[in-house]
Amino acid sequence: MSLLEIFCAVDDFCLSFEPKWRSYLLSNGQKRRGPKRQMCLSEIMTILIYFHQSSYRCFKTYYTEYVQKQLRNEFPILVSYNRFVEYTPSALVPLCAYMNSRLGTTTGINFVDSTPLPVCHNKRISRHKVFDGLAKRGKTSMGWFFGFKLHLIVSDVGEILAFQATPGNIDDRKPVLKMAELIWGKLFGDKGYIARWLTEELLEDDVRLITPIKKNMNPALVPFMDRILTRKRSIIETINDQFKNISQVSHTRHRSPFNFMVNVLCGLIAYSFQPYKPSLNIRPQEQELLSLA
User: What are the structural domains of the chain?
Assistant: First the structure.
């Protein structure tokens, strides 16, 4: 999606959200009236989101070499890089609200997974101070890491339905109940989501959790199409791969927890603007049959 289209979509959101947000902050004493900043909120959010659609891997290089030099006509009142970094934390709550407005609608076929977001190399854990008390040690099939986990639920057409960031030591099954509140049908996960209590509680909310079985478990009768869809979990793994390698969601250069969360949210929003998302290409008639079978 072009820069203009992203700005128009973000600006329409800000026109309705910003007055309510400013009024809330003033009424709670969290903000005082004062001079307006040079750049408006929609401009800040657009620049942050557009970074994840660019080919730049470093935000400073992107802002100083691309935005300040090539986007002067689009953003006539640009501030210095240091000033823009100071503005960034103020966009955290609006970005979170905007991402929630960008969530897709379930089709009855859903996939859940988590991906690690390391914040430093394992050898520097003892010296790391930026996320002290926030990031935790976690373990995946690829080994140990220090940082956070990004939990996602996506549909069979590649739309994000729910998301949550947790410390790295949180069990993958813990956030599922909260994330699955607005979905229905079938939820496919890997072996890390096997739990009788989770299956039973999800079933009370009309969500059927389907996972592969472990070698030490008794075999269970699973419909043939459910076994096929279980093998299609690569769709959410592809999405996680895009977040890390295209959107630059995972890197170890963060110097602020707020900017870390802004970076993650902007990566999710940039993905939601993609015209072509990973999809299983299931026809509408087949979706209904598969979700109810």
Answer: 3-101 (no CATH), 109-256+282-292 (3.30.420.10)
